[in-house]
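Reply to dn_fold:

You asked what the input looked like. This is it:
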Amino acid sequence: MVATGVSSSYPVLLLGSGMNGPDDLLYSDADGTVLVGEHTDGHIARIGGAAGFERLPQVVGEAEGFAQVGGVTYVADQVDNRVVALTAAGGVQTLIQLQPDPNGLNLDGISSDAKGTGLVVPDSPHGTVLFVDTAGHITGQVNGFSRPAGVSVDPQGGYLVADENAGAIFAIPPGANRPTRLAGNLPGADDAVRDVDGHLLVILPERGTLRDVTSGVDVAAGLRNPQGLGFDGAQNVLVTESDNGRLDLVVKTFAVQVPAGVVQLVPGQTVCFGVLRGPGFTAPVIVNEIVGGVPLVDPADGTVGEVLPSRCNLPACMITLVLSSSAGIEYAHFTYRD
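and this is what came back:
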């Protein structure tokens, strides 16, 4: 489904809607699902996978940034200026409590560190970025920010920090104790990431844009209060629209399109699925795995593939597709019955 109201030279798809102030997000390479923090009511939505859309049992005061370390999911709770761990019992446990801001402008985005062994936590109201281990101990600190709102691992080394009040993107080079300014004139910069081509991307909530700072052009405009930013498994761009209550996907490489609803089949009938390609993406796409069926035709350098579903003796059965290309992996699911 197309994300209406968004303008871009790339296809923009609607992945999820009906959320309450969706904010930061976290993509799972393991199954292609996306966690989205619902800032308004503290719920955590999971989009994709077999369920399509569900909410986790845990509730956080104001769910903001996410990180995963050692199989544990950590969430930034803005209202209480703390980071919590989601527990297996369906609750939350405080990892680190920071000093709250009287005006409630507390921490925002967080990230795992470059080694995947700890967390990077911008203490936004106090202008500092903290390095925190999984026991809740502060192991390092970088000062010199105005309001660091979002942090991500820079694939070129170190970290990227979006400074909301400074309207700038900073880098923390490996081993450095001071930030380096990379770009400015970015009012309200909330999150920043770097893609595989080395381009810096940033979301500007007030302008409603996803901007490529490196090339100086907007990747997408018309977004209503964009708040979360990240990549899926094929380097497409995930972005939330807080005021629209939805999660969008900017297709820069390829996405899989499958039938909606429950497909009525006769035994032995095959099903076609589509590959939506971003402008200029011509790399072959192949089927890595199909759960619940047999692959018949790879999309290759085209836009259509074919699968033979297994016999279904239930009211509805599910097919899971895992497709890959040079850009990475994409997941898709559809249901059917014989």
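The chain has two domains: 12-250, 254-337.
Hope that clears it up.
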